[in-house]
Each structure stands twice: as structure tokens, then as C-alpha cells.
Design goal:
Layout (H helix, E strand, L loop, with lengths): L2 E7 L3 E8 L4 E8 L3 H4 L1 H19 L6 E8 L5 H11 L7 E5 H9 L5 E6 L3 E6 L5 E4 L12 H16 L8 H9 L4 H11 L10 H8 L3 H24 L7 E6 L1 H4 L4 H13 L4 E4 L5 H12 L6 H11 L4 H6 L3
Parallel strand pairs: 1-4, 4-5, 6-9, 9-10
Antiparallel strand pairs: 1-2, 2-3, 6-7, 7-8
Length: 334
Amino acid sequence: MSYFLGVDGGGSKTLAVITDEKGHVLGIGRSEGSNYQSIGIDKATQHIGNAIDCALYDANLIADDITHAVYGLAGADRPKDLAIVLPACRKLPIQSWRVVCDTMIGLRSGSPSFTGIVLVCGSGTNAAGRNKYGDEVQTGGFGYLYGDWAGGGDLARAAFRTAIRSFEGREEYSLLVKLVPEFLGYTDVEHMLNDYLDKEYTNVPRELAIVVHQAANRGDTLSCKILARMGYELGLSAKSVAMRLCDLDEPLDVVLVGSVIQRGRHPLLIGGIEQVLNDSGFEFRLCIPDIPPVCGAVLLAFDDHGIAIQTSTYDHWAAEFGASNHSFLEEKNV
């Protein structure tokens, strides 16, 4: 029996999944984030190793049992990054493996042909594309200074800013005035604002992004504008990839991954993406996978060994830890 390992090493968490050659899930592991650009290569490698160890323990296997692994890692974007990441991955216990950027496991999770465009909207944001010849292009993924604005962190900061601006009368009233301080454990915006100033905080928890969805679902105008803007920004990233990458067949497969999209699925966010692509004249198909990106890493491991997966396997994965059941992946740990 052959066993395959997929790893999704993101900015906020690292997930590892082990399956057999039929796609039966045998083990799942979770650890802290492993983007080396944020925490350094030593901690990143440790967190990847922890997730793998948890998955091996869960599957009652040892590292030598793994036939092949694919690591999809945030921060593995450029040759300079790979020069740091690859030597670190050689220290992990798996013998046969390869590294791809986390965008590629997201694309594979929603594209059987492993072609098209992927938009990532998790703790950060990224966009990439791959054509039938294996050529790849990336747009963004390097932070606000380099043009990005569409990740969970951006959404959380927008919620915080909007709550303050609305409280002070610089914007119309927003439900965020109530929801943001409640989420952060304050009685009101004034106490929250003064505490943040006194303690010289410079950022807010990414988890705060959820309140924008909550407020928008209740018809809050400013929250709706934030989500629409995020969708438009993601649409611009998709357009950029489509224009820069030659030989992309239309209709374009546009795969949307990351917690902000896969959990939120807000129509204003999706609509913003569709608007940009429609206005640009592209034919496209949007896909929000029912399986998390870590399954895309497993699929790439199968691809490397020429193993085809049945449709029933996708259905099983979706039922076990798909978009509607992400809490299973988050809570699974040893």
C-alpha cells in the first residue's frame, strides 16, 4: 500500500493530511503557521514538522511509510525563497517530496486539469495562474506596499478603521461600531480606541474579519462596501494573471480559495470578481472548491505518481472536511 502526504503551510496555520492510494483519509495534523517570511525559517520548519508528526500519529504510520509528499507553502514564491525553503525541507523526515507555492495547491483543489487562475483570500492574498504547458504567473502575495489589498488581515483592519471612523462621524453609522468592540472584548469604541492607543497596538487580530461578513449579512452599508471593494481587488488580480499568462484556454477556470472566500462566500465579494472579468471581456467559470487547499497538495502528490482519483473520493473529502466543515481541520491536533 502507498501512502501520500499533503501539507498546506499558510500564514496562520499548517495542515497535513495523509491518505492511501485510494484517497482514504488516514491522518490529519495541525500546527501553527509556517510562512517563513513572517516567523523565520527555523520556526516555519518546526511547525511543518509538527503538523506532519501529528498526521503520522493519527494515521499510526511512520515517516518512512510515506511514498511521496507535496508541501504547498506560503512564502515559497521566488528563487530566493526556494533557496531558503528547500534546504529546510530536507531536514523533515519525509524522503520523497517537492515544494510548490501554496497558490498551486489551491488551484489543484478546484481544477482537475491543474490549469487556470487561482485567487487566494485567507490571512493574506495572492493570485496565480498556470497554463497547459506548465507556465506559471503570480500577481501579488507580497503585502500592501507591493500592491496587495484583499486578505483577511486587510479585512480585519478595514473593520477596525471603519468602526472608529463611523463612531467619530467621519462615516455614516455602521453596525461595526457595536460589533468590533464586542468581538475584541470592549464595551464600546471609545474604550477600545483608548486602550489600543495606550498600549500602542499596531495591528488587530485577523479573526476580526468575520464581523464584516456578519454586518454585511444584516445589510450594513459600509460593510457591504468593504466586501465589494475586496471582490473588485480580487477581480483585478485575476485580470492581471489572465493578461500576463499566455495560452490560457477560455473559458478561464477561476478557483477561489482561502477562508474569507470559502467560508464567507458573500455574494458582494463574488460579484466584484465577476464584474471585473465580465467588463474585461473574459469568458470564465468561477469555482469555490468544497475541499480545502491541503487536499490539492494530496492531489498533486497523486499526480506525481500518475494516480487518478475517482469522483467519489472528492465527494468523500468534501463530506469529511470540506468548506462546510473546516472546524474539523482546525480542531484536529495531538
